[in-house]
Write a structure and sequence with these properties.
alpha/beta; 2-enoyl-CoA Hydratase, Chain A, domain 1; 2 domains; seven-stranded mixed sheet; three-stranded antiparallel sheet; 10 strands; globular; zinc-finger; lipid biosynthesis; ClpP/crotonase-like_dom_sf; COA_CT_N; ATP binding
Length: about 290
Amino acid sequence: MSLFDWFADRQKNAPTVRVTQEPEEGDGLWSKCPECSLVVYRKDLVANASVCKGCGHHNRIDSPERIALIADPGSFEPMDTGLSPTDPLAFKDRRSYADRIRDSQQSTGLRDAVVTGICRTSGLPLALGVMDFRFMGGSMGSVVGEKLTRLIETATARRIPVLIVCASGGARMQEGMLSLMQMAKISGALERHRQAELLYLPLLTYPTTGGVTASFAMLGDLILAEPKALIGFAGRRVIEQTLREKLPEGFQTAEYLRDHGFVDAIVDRTEFKATLASLLTMHGCRETVAA
């Protein structure tokens, strides 16, 4: 058998793997759970924070939906909305980086893969950053790093806690070293926040991988995660090929990481706001905000 025939045979017999958390949709009125196949009225699914009532599957949600679930109505004040990425390396693969940015901005209505701002949650002040996987897989480039750093520095100055909702494939390769620099920059801002004895909470959602996992996603005072969230640095196949051994079932899930001490708590999305309020109160957060 030739090498070409061998490769074609491997491709033909390769198993199909589901990589999305999105519910299946027909006419837009109904949604089918990708886990248990329960068909529900879409408005009912959204009313339950996009969590399946049949099996508890957490469907992926975008940044506006996430902010609406966490922030008190009308309290979110966005920051740095004018920051937009450039193409410093003139990167081009099958399509140019500039084209990818423009397409993502048009399809999502966002400037980049994170939304940041100051809000209140259950009456308590909070600096909130929400990554959006729709924008180039939530990848971390210069704008994402700058916006999160500014958010943390503002929170330190105002002496309020920080919550970052992580949803990312990792560092953005089209920006090269400029993207990797953001890992250290955000981590440095978090260290100054910690030295001020202020609370930082990351919420790890599906997926949290690569350079995001290797930096601010794992630096929380308490690390929270959603059920069955994919969390890791390298992919499963890369690790197995490197170690030349089979990894345990459920490896890189939130439950596996909790059982092995990398995640402190798994919180259902429908209970997250109440849990967040309890944690903020427990750590001394008050309703007044320093000017």
